[in-house]
UniProtKB/TrEMBL annotation:
Species per Swiss-Prot/TrEMBL record: Gadus morhua (Atlantic cod)
Subcellular location: Nucleus matrix; Nucleus speckle; Nucleus, Nucleoplasm
A GO BP annotation: nucleotide-excision repair
Protein name: N-glycosylase/DNA lyase
Keywords for this protein: DNA damage, DNA repair, Glycosidase, Hydrolase, Lyase, Multifunctional enzyme, Nucleus
Cellular compartments per GO CC: nuclear matrix; nuclear speck
Name of the gene encoding the protein in the UniProt record: ogg1
Principal location listed in the UniProt entry: nucleus
Pfam families, alphabetized: HhH-GPD, OGG_N
Coiled-coil region list: none
Gene3D superfamilies: 3.30.310.40, Helix-hairpin-Helix base-excision DNA repair enzymes (C-terminal), Hypothetical protein, domain 2
Length: 410
DNA sequence: CGTCGACCTCC
DNA sequence: GAGGTCGAC
């Protein structure tokens, strides 16, 4: 048997072979390309047209979506092979469950009806996706509320729909964002790749690419790790990573980060800041993206520019640099504007400003089509009322100077 | 509380 | 300079 015959490939919905499961999920609730590509996670790649492959919950997944469904394929991990009989050895690839289930889905892809073999839904996989994408949060409703409170958001959100916060593993999230200081996305992705490749457990190989789990705290805490990561080009972040991991294990224990999910926002953020390499920005990222603090607003130079440029926000306008005080003021400003899910709204504006998504702004026709399709009489009436209301809403400029009514810091 | 320089590398 | 942090005035 040749190597090629056993080589697993990335699953593709339209090609057939691999078995898929799916769940109801519209594009206005989730856009995979924007949500996975906006810089909140560095672990997903587009491995095929609209197909995203990455590691989540210790498994390798490929995800894709059609108009009203989210499709997923989960690969078997390497180790799983040892416990399974030979017949299943080639099952990373096609047809593992086809004998058990003859069920098929008729799916429309690019005007073409395609037969997709369906897996028997495995216990827990759909639940993992619901948890990871926080699909129990109604994003359409949030967009509606943000748009009502903020005309600029309303404008942006016509194009940038379906951007939601992931609920990431706290260790992966925190240590990934320690890598982000003084850095840009493409290089960060490479660094996180290297971190996983050198310290994480290999999970499976697809088309010659090996996927690794994110390393454990104890793996990162090892004394040799700083030198190792410096050799890999992490620079001064190498020490931050190793020492933060070591400090967490020595001072708190392995479950401490996870436990911060039940700690109030400001308290959790303060705790994180005691770690080397973790300032306000990184702590807020970990809070928002992995610790269930939907009102955490990570403020970087980019968001600061947006606050000044698009909201005429006075906070920090006289400041030369992004100090902690400016950071807090901007965060308070957006919390007051958008409410308890301010961090989610922030990610939409952030995404809309990324260079790689600017081309989306040049295609207004798509949005018009959507409008036409969605304009049932009832919806149209509602929409009109909303727009009239919108005109009466004051520009956020004036809101900016209102005093934030938030609990005092610390 | 605000400003500055240093910290690593890559483009 | 880049999606920041730390320590020193």
């Amino acid at each position: 048997m040749s190597i090629i015959a056993t080589m697993a490939k990335h699953a593709r919905l339209s090609v057939g072979g691999a078995a898929w499961a799916s769940m109801a999920c519209t594009r206005s609730q989730l856009r995979l390309d924007l949500t996975l590509g906006c810089g909140q996670t560095f672990r997903w790649r587009e491995t095929g047209d609209g197909h995203w492959t990455g590691v989540m919950g210790g498994r390798v997944w490929t995800l894709t979506q059609t108009d009203d469904r989210l499709w997923y394929h989960v690969y078997n991990n390497k180790d799983a092979h040892k416990e399974v009989d030979n017949r299943k050895r080639k099952a990373d690839g096609p047809a593992q469950q086809l004998n058990k289930s003859e069920k098929r889905w008729k799916v429309n892809i690019k005007e073409e009806e395609i037969d997709v073999p369906v897996t028997v839904k495995k216990e827990g996989e759909e639940e993992m996706l619901v948890d990871y994408f926080q699909l129990d949060v109604n994003l359409e409703e949030l967009y509606r509320e943000w748009g009502l409170a903020d005309p600029h958001f309303k404008h942006i959100s016509n194009i940038f729909t379906g951007i939601r916060m992931l609920r990431q593993n706290p260790t992966e999230c925190l240590f990934s964002f320690i890598c982000t200081s003084n850095n840009h996305i493409s290089r960060i992705q490479g660094m996180v790749d290297n971190l996983c490749r050198s310290l994480g457990k290999p999970l499976c190989e697809l088309d010659g690419t090996t996927y690794y789990d994110f390393p454990s705290l104890s793996a990162i805490a090892d004394d040799k790790v700083e030198a190792l990561l410096r050799d890999l080009g992490f620079g001064y972040r190498a020490r931050f990573l190793q020492q933060s991991a070591k400090q967490i294990l020595e001072q708190h224990g392995p479950d401490w980060l996870q436990g911060l999910r039940r700690t109030p926002y400001l308290q959790a953020r303060n705790s994180l800041r005691s770690l080397p390499g973790v300032g306000l920005k990184v702590a807020d990222c970990a809070c928002l993206m992995s610790l269930d603090k939907a009102d955490a607003v990570p403020v970087d130079t980019h968001i600061w520019q947006i606050a000044k440029r698009d909201y005429k926000c006075a906070a920090g306008s006289t400041q030369k640099t992004l100090t902690d005080k400016v950071n807090r003021d901007i965060g308070d400003f957006f919390r007051q504007l958008w409410g308890p899910y301010a961090g989610w709204a922030q990610s939409v504006l952030f995404c809309a400003d990324l260079k790689k998504f600017q081309k989306l702004k040049e295609m207004p026709s798509i949005k018009l089509e959507d409008d036409k399709k969605a304009s049932l009489p009832l919806k149209k009436a509602k929409l009109k009322i909303k727009n009239e209301k919108l005109d009466q809403i004051e520009k956020p400029t004036s809101v900016c100077h209102k005093k934030a009514k938030l609990a005092p810091q610390d």
